[in-house]
Design brief:
By secondary structure, the chain is α+β, with helices and mostly antiparallel strands. Among the domains are: about 80 residues; about 50 residues. Helix content is about 50%, strand content about 15%. The chain contains five helices and seven strands; from the N terminus they run H-E-E-E-E-H-H-H-H-E-E-E. The strands form two sheets. Strands 1, 2, 3 and 4 form a four-stranded mixed beta sheet that branches. Strands 5-6-7 form a three-stranded antiparallel beta sheet. The longest helix is centred in the first third of the chain and has 130 residues. About 10% of the residues are buried. Bound molecules: zinc ion. Zinc ion (ZN) binds next to loops. The site of zinc ion has 8 residues, from loops.
Length: about 350
């Protein structure tokens, strides 16, 4: 019996073991399946990620390709620009060279022009020298102070003297040395600058050398000019106080002397001279007054010299008299010695007016 029980028990044990093993196998299988599923999911996920990455990479690659293309284009453009720049630069250099050449030519041309102008000027001066210049009439400033213009007065008689047509004598006046550099102009080429005519008084002996006569002569003054050979500056002679005068120094000093010596009215002096020099002679009182004003400094110098000489004389006579001067009461003093008579006007009667003249006399 026992054996049967044992066998039964063994069978039960074997069956339960089998069931247990079967159950274990099933759970293992389930676990394996779950794991496999999980692995598959993970793989799928990874694959998806890889695919996405690949896609991204492809996009990047595309972008890089595009950039490369753009870069190549830019490079091409740059090369084109560089070529253009080189061409422009070359053109610029060419233009610069052309400009330099032009400049050089212009310089040459200007030099030539200057030379031609100089030559023309020289030629002109030569022509003028040969032909002479047209006479210019220098207006008499003393008789008509408003007409200082040069050139022949037109139409109406402007109050001045007409230029004398008959000429007794000609004088030439040349510049002596350059005002600028002092160069001696003795050998320089002279050209006529202008001419003028003045009337002067001459004292001459008669043909028998018996008596002295005074006579008037019309003198043609031919004024020359030149260009300094050293510094090329135009030079004209200095004509001094008688530059535009229509009467010469001999005549002016004669008239001034007449007025001082005779103290006659100016009209009387002119009338007297008209008797000597004839109807062609003409002179205005205004002209004489003008000379006294113009030559005041020269007259004063002579007066001072006479005053100095007077002081050296042994004795002097002095007197004074009333003098109406432009409606006022003045006094006229006279101081004279053996050969000098000096006048001095004063607005007082006191001796102060002649104090300096009588200094040294007792
Ligand atoms: Zn000079």
């Amino acid at each position: 019996m026992w054996e049967l029980v044992l066998i039964l028990f063994t069978i039960i044990a074997l069956v339960s073991l089998y069931v247990k093993l079967k159950h274990q196998e099933q759970s293992l299988k389930q676990t394996q399946e779950r794991k496999q599923e999980e692995i598959g999911r993970i793989i799928q996920q990874k694959e998806k990620a890889i695919k996405q990455s690949t896609k991204k990479l492809q996009q990047k690659e595309k972008a890089i390709k595009q950039s490369t293309k753009k870069l190549q284009q830019k490079e091409k453009e740059f090369q084109e620009l560089e070529e253009k720049h080189l061409k422009t630069h070359a053109r610029l250099m060419e233009l610069k060279r052309a400009r330099d050449v032009k400049k050089k030519n212009l310089k040459k041309y200007r030099k030539k022009k200057r030379k031609i102008r100089r030559e023309t000027q020289t030629l002109e001066s030569r022509v003028k020298e040969i032909l002479g210049r047209e006479d210019t009439w220098v207006d008499h400033s003393l008789s008509s102070p408003k007409s200082r213009k040069r050139g022949k007065p037109k139409g109406s008689n402007g109050g001045g003297r007409r230029r004398p047509e008959r000429i007794h004598q000609e004088i030439h006046i040349y510049p002596q040395e350059c005002e600028n550099c002092g160069h001696d102009l003795k050998n320089a080429d002279m050209f006529i600058s202008h001419t003028s005519v003045f009337t002067d008084l001459f004292r001459e002996s008669d043909t028998l050398e018996c008596y002295e006569t005074i006579r008037l002569k019309n003198v043609k003054k031919i004024v020359h000019r030149t260009r300094c050979p050293k510094c090329h500056i135009p030079c004209s002679p200095e004509l001094g106080l008688f530059k535009n005068a229509r009467f010469g120094p001999g005549f002016v000093s004669y008239v001034i002397g007449q007025r001082i010596e005779t103290a006659l009215p100016l009209e009387a002096i002119i009338g007297e001279m008209q008797k000597i020099f004839g109807p062609r002679f003409s002179l205005s009182a205004a002209a004489i007054v003008g000379w006294f004003r113009k030559f005041e400094a020269q007259i004063k110098r002579i007066y001072d010299q006479l005053a100095d000489l007077l002081k050296e004389s042994f004795f002097a006579h002095i007197d004074e008299t009333g003098l109406s001067l432009q409606g006022e009461n003045w006094w006229l003093w006279v101081i004279c010695c053996a050969n000098i008579v000096l006048y001095r006007e004063s607005n007082t009667r006191g001796h102060d007016a002649i104090k300096d003249l009588i200094q040294g006399f007792e």
